[in-house]
Amino acid sequence: MKKRSLKILVLLVVALFAMALAAGCGGGSKDPGTGGGGEEVKTVVLKAGVTPDATHPYALGMIEYGKMIEERTGGRYKIEVYPAAQLGSEREVIEGVQMGTVDLTVVSTAPLAGFSDAFLVTDLPFLFVDKAHAHKVLDGEIGQGIFAQLEGTGIKGLAFWENGFRNITNSKKPINLPEDMVGIKIRTMENPIHMDSFRQIGADPTPMAFGELFTALQQRTVDGQENPLPIIYTSRFQEVQEHLALTGHFYAPAPLLISQATWDKLSAEDQAIFAQAAIEATAIQRKMIQDMDDELVDKLAEAGMQITTPDKGPWQEAMAPVYDKWEDTIGKDLIEQIRKLAE
Ligand code: EAX
After folding, report:
1. In 3D, which of 167, 208, 161 has the Cα closest to residue 185?
2. pLDDT tens-digit series, residues 36-49
3. What is the pTM of this model?
4. Measuring from atom 6 of ligand 1, which residue has the nearest CA?
5. What is Dmax (Cα atoms) for the chain?
6. 217 touches ligand 1 (CB under 6 Å)
């Protein structure tokens, strides 16, 4: 073949490939299967971006949710999951959801503080006494009220999935009392309440996007970080952090969010499918977190981490002034209502 015609052929193949790719990403691709009856199923591909690793229950839960959606819409909708911050940090993905360039995400409530005050209450230290308490609050009227406040932000909340109770790791020393944290440079999420809580015990909170954290720990730019066990393990922090303190200081919900723009394009019938599946997937996703929480203390110890189980009392007391500072913004009544549900 002549060089010129070869070049044309290559260009043609590249163009065809690009067209196929564009059709696939643009959400207008034809389903190759013709649904038995001969009628074509038009598949809309929705993009879901999450920050943690592909093996973490954010991504795994989203895959389960995607299966439900695909099955219940007869293949008219598919969810493509992009883990490991492939679509950006949590803040960037939330912006994407707001603009409609990202369809779905599961994120911590902490970075949502930059978008709405509604979630701030969930960031208070030691507010939720256990997971059952958190679920009761978030699955009930209070959770609905939080989501209702998102109205007008371009973001719609579908359900409260879970990240879990957060624990401290560091490379310096075993942590038992809040005083042990004095001078420890700890990475926090970009959230004012989290930062205040650590300042309160004399630590040096350094906000940072999650994607930069492994390297920051490895290079010792920060001494420590705090996260639930499934995040610690699936992010391999045990390879760069020696000490783990089971403080459980914040309970981190993980709201499943959909872009309002995407939601508005769904028929009423499909909206009902998406909403119902989100609730059903919640139980599956929370169970994945629970199963990991159950086995990970042992696994992290086996991996060489030195684990302490601090008495929560002194921590709760030391961080309590954060409530005085934030209760006007958050609402004293709301905090009281949440506390009552623990009884
Ligand atoms: O939401 O940034 C964090 O530490 C979060 O726990 C993580 O990205 C999952």
Report:
1. 208
2. 556 788 999 999 99
3. 0.88
4. 227
5. 82
6. no
